[in-house]
Write a structure and sequence with these properties.
single chain; alpha+beta; Triger factor/SurA peptide-binding fold; Chitinase A, domain 3; 2 domains; 11 helices
Length: 276
């Protein structure tokens, strides 16, 4: 679980580039927006608060959220100041939380920079080439069909085709499906995900030129199918899988780093785990 969390974190930071962009930004790129009792609120404060919001809120325009973000930061400054007046910044629980959050921040920043620096174009290209060696091409089928309401109608159409009737003409004349105007042409589709399972299973069991010997039932009705072509899909281009490769390689890099660091570490467990 630790590896998974670290890898997901590193991948997300790598893809957004937010950690390094903020930390490396010149001072002029982080101006003061407002001052609360002498304490400054910076642009970076608004950005970080915005990034902490749930996804549905982050999708709203910034000009819509900005007043609430500013008000939240003003309240935070004022309440934090009162907490310091009471010495809460020296409280043991506060110190533990601050130390914990500090390590979390350092972990995020280090992993983001480590992955960004380590994930070179050469490594990504090697990962892509490795992907191609294991990639199994998806077979695709192009088929036509005639959709009918009853099995009796579909059986009669199969008989007509056996007697030499033209499939496309029958599709235009009798099919109740939206592809009837195209002679029942469905184009190319994959075995999984594009068609209902019963239809796909029947189509992929046939060779080009063959007509389904019996009607095929789906939730739409009864189908008479003719396979036109079969082909192997070409492998995806690098750009099609780049994001997945980056996430995969980020996970691998973090796992490798964790293993190296653990090898040189002294790890002791003097106490039992805390009770739940």
């Amino acid at each position: 679980m630790k590896y998974f969390v670290l890898a997901a974190l590193a991948a997300a930071l790598l893809l957004t580039g937010s950690a390094r962009a903020q930390s490396d930004a010149p001072a002029d790129d982080n101006p003061v927006l407002i001052t609360v009792n002498g304490e400054d609120v910076f642009v970076s404060d608004v950005i970080m608060l915005h990034e902490s919001l749930p996804v549905q809120y982050r999708q709203l325009p910034m000009d819509t959220l900005y007043p609430q973000l500013i008000n939240t930061l003003i309240d935070r400054k004022l309440i934090a100041a009162k907490a310091r007046e009471q010495g809460l910044d020296s409280d043991a629980q506060a110190q533990r939380r601050i130390a914990f959050e500090m390590e979390t921040i350092l972990e995020e920043m280090y992993l983001a920079r480590f992955v960004e620096d380590s994930l070179t174009d050469e490594r990504l290209q090697a990962a892509y080439e490795g992907f191609l060696t294991t990639w199994g091409p998806d077979e695709q089928v192009r088929a036509r069909h005639i959709l009918l309401e009853t099995v009796e109608e579909a059986t009669a159409v199969i008989a007509d085709l056996g007697d030499g009737a033209d499939f496309e003409k029958l599709a235009r004349a009798k099919s109740i499906g939206p592809t009837s105007v195209d002679g029942g042409d469905l184009g190319f589709f994959r075995r999984e995900g594009d068609m209902l399972p019963a239809f796909a299973e029947a189509a992929f069991a046939m060779q080009p030129g063959e007509v389904s010997p019996t009607p095929v039932q789906t939730s739409f009705g009864w189908h008479v199918i003719r396979v036109e072509e079969r082909k192997k899909a070409p492998p995806p281009e690098f750009t099609d899988v780049e994001l997945d490769l980056r996430a995969q390689e980020a996970k691998t890099l973090v796992m490798e780093l964790s293993g190296i660091l653990r090898e040189g570490a002294t790890i002791e467990s003097p106490t039992a785990p805390p009770e739940q």
